[in-house]
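Q: Start with the shorter request: fold the first protein.
A: Done. Sequence, then structure:
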Amino acid sequence: MRLLDAGFSSCFVATTADDQACYIQWLISPRENALLQKTFDGLFPSLGPNEMLLEGAYTPVAFRGQRIMPAAMALIAERAADLGAERALTFVSDDNIPSLKGCKRAGFAPCLQRQAIHRLGRCRMVFVPLAAGTPYAFEAPPGT
């Protein structure tokens, strides 16, 4: 609801043959950087001119485990490419294994890690580039 209320412009909804919503996600372009920063207060990086952000993914419980997410994400990422994006980003916490697996199935690869830095009672996010081939959290050997 936060994305809808904020007024982000590109919401994609996957539906079943009988028009039930089974997946939803927003595609955010760099022209919405000001709104992105205002709404999320630094939780996401400002997007470069050739980047887009997929955010706000939700699959209703009745449709989970059916691999709708990766299929829909892949289609949304294709739409981002059609609109000129060379890179589509999405952020998922390391402990959300089902979503991470969905991202992998959709063709996404780890490339950027969000880290919270706490100092003097304030929190800010830093975004650390990852080396090509960095494994997903669920693929890394324990202790790495």
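Q: Next, the second protein, separately.
A: Sequence, then structure:
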Amino acid sequence: MKRNFLEIACFNAESAVVAQAAGADRVELCDDFAAGGITPGILEIEKVRKEIEIPLFIMIRPRGGDFVYTDKEFEQMKQEISFIKRMKVDGFVFGMLNENGTIDKQRNMELVRLADPLSCTFHRAFDLAPDPFKAMEDVIACGFRTILTSGKAAVANEGIALLACLVQDAKNRITVMPGGGIRSATITALKNTNAVFYHSSAITDKSGIADQKEIKLLKEKLR
């Protein structure tokens, strides 16, 4: 029986500690939940790295809003990767699009090379691409190892059909990781995608902190 893995999106150090204690396999650390995640502060990264031992991925996103970045914003992303890479993190999460929604191959590839040998995830900007199958090929060509996607739906459990097709077409060339509103009440149906990695914030109230019971339920239902 294959093993399934769970990544928890954390917007503070408290959530990261909860995630590890509850059995999460990986943490994606971000800031600004309302914006959908931006690059966290250096002090927060240092704090989390000291407090957890499971793999730690860092969101690289200079602002909320769209994923078409200026040259200045791109330079900021490069500087952040170069600096944070030295902080014993395990990977990065980012994604850049062209104005027409297609994958910005040149600049994404530059960031992936800068992050090497650390693993990179292309985040849910992927869901804005007009052709998800062409987008997946472009993301693979850039050197990413994971795609975070809801299957172009508002929440992942509404995108199951496309997610299953993406997992099948990936043919182990890249990990397709369902994410977007995943909770313990919906994750069982998502196993029909045959994905291996799943992504959730596990936030169930207004505290902004991941819920330990929810993470344990997610893990239990992924077994």
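Q: Describe the second briefly.
A: The longest helix spans residues 71-84. The chain has a mean pLDDT of 97.
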